[in-house]
Amino acid sequence: MTRPAIVTAVLIAALQTPALAQDAYLDDRSSPEALLRSLYNAVNRQEYARAFDYFSTPPAASLDTYQEGFADTDRVTLATGTTTSQGAAGSIYYALPVAIRATAKDGGEQVFAGCYTLRLSNPQIQGTPYTPMHIEKAALKPAEGDLEDALPASCGEGDPVESDVVLADAKALFASAYGQTCTAPSDTAEAEPRAYSIPFNYSYESEDTPKHEARLFRFHCDRGAYNALHVYLMANEEGSVSLLQFATPEIDVQYENDDTDGKVEEVRIIGYKADRQLVNSDYDPQTLTLTSYAKWRGIGDASASGTWIFREGSFSLVKYDVDASYNGEVDPITLLDYHTGP
């Protein structure tokens, strides 16, 4: 495997007092990479007590001394390599290659590279107070060149740990946003989200512009007798994950004699809403389209279906069909169509 394939580069935005809001607060100990990102997030936000507390053994004689070490630092950029792990006496020790670029307030830059050692005590045998993953020690030395070149190839003899930081962030955001409303799937195949990479260019870019890449994640949310609910999250090329919502028509159906078993007299769009969930949905990477098909009852003779296409970095509603007749036949009508050619 080539070096670029194993490098996860995490850019941490420059922060200048008092513009702390530029960098969103991150406190994540779910993986060694996430913990290091949180460490330098704290440094960039000038939250030195939080950064200091990520270490099991103080990294300096005092918090004041630690903070003074960053007095001239404007921002820090982080790159991490492939983590290795070893188990010992109820704990897992992780060795993580790291390279950082420290940019001073006067614009000067200095690169450091080396290894972090992290420890996670077995959560199943811990009591209280609980000890989360923490940094045991760090050994960084001045280095030259780009972060990718300075990054050590490895830091330990243990087993490599496959780590997908963006996927971990997507799972954490899903749990935070939907943990109380979505139910765990009974089918183990649905326990992990489906993930897709979407290479694309903006319309204003030339044909030889390198592709951007978004990542789409589909999470199972709930399942009924004939409908399954999904929610979607998307990461941009910087790795920032967000919740997706989808433009969906709000419809009004007029039935003969106001009886849903009667003839459909009119189906009209009366507005639009943003849906956080899609029903019986799927993504087609060949056409860059998301589709949904919501059955109004089990036999599927009444339903609503939508199509959203990915373009310009987001999804747009391009087609919506409704079958409002409970007549045992599948005969939808198209309410809008910006997708099908003449």
The average pLDDT score comes to 87
Q: Helix amount, in percent?
A: 10-25%
Q: Detail the poorly predicted runs.
A: 1-21
Shape: elongated
Total domains: 2
Number of H/I helices:
6
What is the distance, rounded to the nearest whole angstrom, between the alpha carbons of the first and last residues? 48 Å
Strand content: 35-45%
Write down the Rg: 25 Å
Please identify the structural class as seen in this structure.
mainly beta
What characterizes the major β-sheet?
A: 7 strands, antiparallel
Task: Please provide the count of β strands.
Answer: 19
H/E topology pattern: HEHHHEEEEEHEHEEEEEEEEEEEE
Characterize the structure shown.
The strands form 4 sheets. Strands 1, 2, 3, 4, 5, 6 and 7 form a 7-stranded antiparallel beta sheet that branches. The chain has helices at 3-6, 32-44, 48-53, 63-68, 147-150, 165-178; strands at 8-10, 73-80, 83-88, 91-104, 109-121, 134-143, 159-161, 194-200, 212-223, 228-235, 241-243, 246-255, 264-275, 278-279, 282-284, 289-295, 303-311, 314-323, 333-337. It has 6 helices and 19 strands. Mean pLDDT is 87; it is low at 1-21. The protein is mainly beta and 342 residues long. The two termini are 48 Å apart. Helix content is 14%, strand content 42%.
